[in-house]
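User: I'm putting together notes for a lab meeting next week and I want to include a structural view of one of the chains we've been expressing. I don't have a solved structure, so I'd like a prediction I can at least talk through. The sequence is below, exactly as it appears in our construct file.
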Amino acid sequence: MRQSFFDEGYLNCQYTQIEALEKDSSPYFIVEIITLYFRDSPNVIAALEHEFIGAIKINNELEKANILLQAGNIDGMKAAVRDIKKEHNELRAKFETYFQLMRQAGPTEQAVNSS
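Assistant: Thanks for the context. Below is the predicted structure for the 115-residue chain, given as structure tokens.
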């Protein structure tokens, strides 16, 4: 079964490096690492789903600014820079709020039972 994780593209050589650490630390080290991964990854995925929209907005504003710059539209470029700053500040505020909530929530229950 272990090999199927590699064959199906779920794991790479980093997993074997973590397994090597297991021999030096504790017999269930890999279980602890995978448990932490599954505990924390849904929060990270949710944050990316919600916050990536802001990054897309920033990218869109950068593309607009580039088009204006190539066209030599200085006034449009100044407005585009203001829009980029606005989107950047909004995204930063969202991440600051999100990180504060993460710190307040603290660790959650384990996703994998290690007993």
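A couple of points you could mention at the meeting. Confidence is low (pLDDT under 50) at residues 109-115. The CA atoms of residues 36 and 78 lie 46 Å apart.

User: Perfect, that's what I needed.
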